[in-house]
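User: My advisor asked me to double-check a structure prediction for Two component transcriptional regulator, LuxR family before group meeting. I don't want to rely on an old file, so could you generate it fresh from this sequence?
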Amino acid sequence: MPAVVRVVLADDEAMFRAGIRAILSADPEVEVVAEAVNGRELVEAARSHRPDVALVDIQMPRLDGLAAVPQVRAHSPGTAVVMLTTFGRDEYIARALQEGASGFLLKAGDPRELIAAVRATAEGGAYLSPVVARRVITEFRGRGPARGAALDRVGGLSPRERETLALLGTGMSNAEIARRLFVSEETVKSHVKAVLAGLGVRNRVQAAIIAHEAGLVGDVPD
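Assistant: Sure, here is a fresh prediction for Two component transcriptional regulator, LuxR family from the sequence you gave:
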């Protein structure tokens, strides 16, 4: 994780932004470097500040949060996007993850989840609130590959990539995977990139679902 996690906060409600900033300010290793009130301002802030994490409301004027995600990722590929919303509808969750978001939190959730999400995604991991996580597992398992198909997809990975996928499936960050495998974080990033490409998925959550379907998660290396 960076020494100080740099965050851009995007929400059109001033009072909500103030509340989020107050929560984040309780952690001396987190800094809000910019705020945005709509999707276009968010994209510009990502381009200008290259933050580690963007906390993004789904419903904003001019350009909504979901539409802004791919633009943020295009202008600042190192920025992890965490969606913040009052809406927990399945189609929002699925689209956010498909667009490349690394996390999804409900505004009514525990404030401690916010700090946890910022830290986890800054380290290269993914974070879903417990309520959302249950729905994501159901969503992707319901339409995802059967065990045989998952095993076929995993079969195209190298042994080290399979180990990385197994650890990724437990929710570990890049730093945690690096410690477990005794390699550098840069090496883990390369492995994760290869895993996502090899599986044909766009984010770590989708890869984790395949890891579970293939039965890898119970077989992580010691």
